[in-house]
Structures are given as C-alpha cells and as structure tokens.
Design goal:
Length: 238
C-alpha cells in the first residue's frame, strides 16, 4: 500500500510564481547529492515489536532501494538514519517524554532503544557496504544533539539531500526543513515517504513545497540526476 499523492494545481502554480519553475532542483549533480532514508525500522513498521507502526511504510521499501542503487551507481551518497532513545536523549529532550502517557513512554523505550528488535532496520532494506549508518536522537537529523549527519555531508561536499522514509510529517519533514535552513538544496521524494494517512502525507509535502524546497517523485529525481550528464560541458561550468 502506498499513498495517493495529491498536491493541488493551485499549489504548483504558487511555486512557479515564486521560483519561476515547478521544480527548482530539476538538475542534480550526483556527486554532491545524498539520499537520506529516515527511520525505516522495525519499531515503526513491525506491529509485533513496534510502538508506532506506519502501514504505508513497507510499501515504499522497493522504491527507496531502487533510488539508493541509482544514486550509488551515479556516485552519490546513501545514508540510513536510525532513530533511537537512550537515557541521555530522554533527559535532554524531556519535553517529548512529558507529552506522552507512561504506557506510551514505556512502549517507545522498548521499541527503539539500541539493541532491541524494534531499533533494527526493516530487513528488506538494501543496505550496502559503503553506505552510511547515522544514529539519530531527535525528530530532525540536523538539530543540536540529534546526530553527526551534517558533518558527514559537509566532509563529502554534499549540497543536496533527498528526503525519504517515515513519518513524512514528523521526522522526514523536520529533517527536510532544517536541511534547507542549513543551506542544503532539499527535495522530499513524494512516493518514497510514508505517513499515517494520505491527508497527513499530502499536507506535509504541500507545506514543504510551498515554502522550503522541492517535492519530486522518484522518476523525477532520477531524471534530474541524469539531466546533468546530458548537459553540454560549457553549460555545466556555468
């Protein structure tokens, strides 16, 4: 099961009015592009060990695997982001704990503590040697205390990130917004994100597309990755 993507034409027109085009990042340099796969773990996908299962998440696994392989072959970077909860993060981010019931807090701890079955990646993900595994302790990868992802990307000369994973409107959108404000060209991949409902998925994509960055399908991303190779050398230099 996958989401029905529905971004209103009026929203597309507003983006065109703002950017001069429907897709401001229609040409991508693979060597400067990273795929971020957010929280595709048993804790969010397997009801037997998880605390917050997203029914649409297993359906995007083949799409993510395919995009990861396309980017690897083109010379890009693939990062598998692994959400976690430990004593330090629960103390430093206590407001999250305060908003949850005791039962919910306990379930989250059981589900995504390092070493648990829920913390492990979904087994059908095609994680390869040479990919990056990035531990994360907040919704966004980029906020203080969350992860070391920004440094890893900067060290590779990455200036563009492709956001995939779950939840579209929580960890994925939080990461995407912060990436843009750290000056990364940011694309949310519409058919490689998963939320609890079509309505939440589309609302998140629409808000991001209007004000923060680009939204593309996997097919559009793959076309953008190939567009640079088809450009004349003098145009690339510009």
């Amino acid at each position: 099961m996958q989401h029905r993507i529905d971004i209103p034409e009026s929203v597309v027109q507003r983006v065109i009015n703002r950017c001069g085009t429907a897709h401001p990042f229609a040409v991508l340099d693979p060597a400067r592009t990273a795929l971020l796969v957010i929280d595709m773990q048993n804790g969010y996908m397997n009801a037997e060990v998880g605390h917050s299962c997203v029914q649409t998440a297993p359906g995007i696994v083949p799409t993510i695997n395919g995009l990861a392989e396309t980017l690897r072959q083109a010379g890009g970077m693939v990062c598998w982001v692994q959400n976690a909860s430990d004593e330090r993060s629960r103390e430093e981010w206590s407001v999250l704990e305060q908003q949850a019931s005791p039962a919910r807090r306990a379930a989250r701890i059981r589900s995504i503590s390092p070493g648990t079955a829920g913390h492990a990646f979904w087994p059908d993900l095609d994680i390869r040697a040479g990919d990056e595994i990035v531990p994360k302790f907040r919704y966004s990868c980029f906020i203080r205390g969350a992860s070391d992802l920004e440094g890893r990307l900067r060290s590779r000369g990455i200036d563009t990130v492709l956001i995939t994973g779950t939840l579209t409107n929580v960890c994925c959108e939080s990461t995407a917004r912060d990436a843009m404000m750290l000056n990364f060209r940011t694309i949310m991949v519409a058919d490689a994100n998963a939320a609890m409902s079509d309505a939440e998925h589309n609302a998140s994509l629409t808000s991001f597309y209007l004000y923060f960055g680009d939204v593309q399908t996997v097919a559009e991303v793959e076309a953008a990755l190939g567009a640079r190779a088809a450009m004349p050398l003098q145009q690339i230099a510009l």
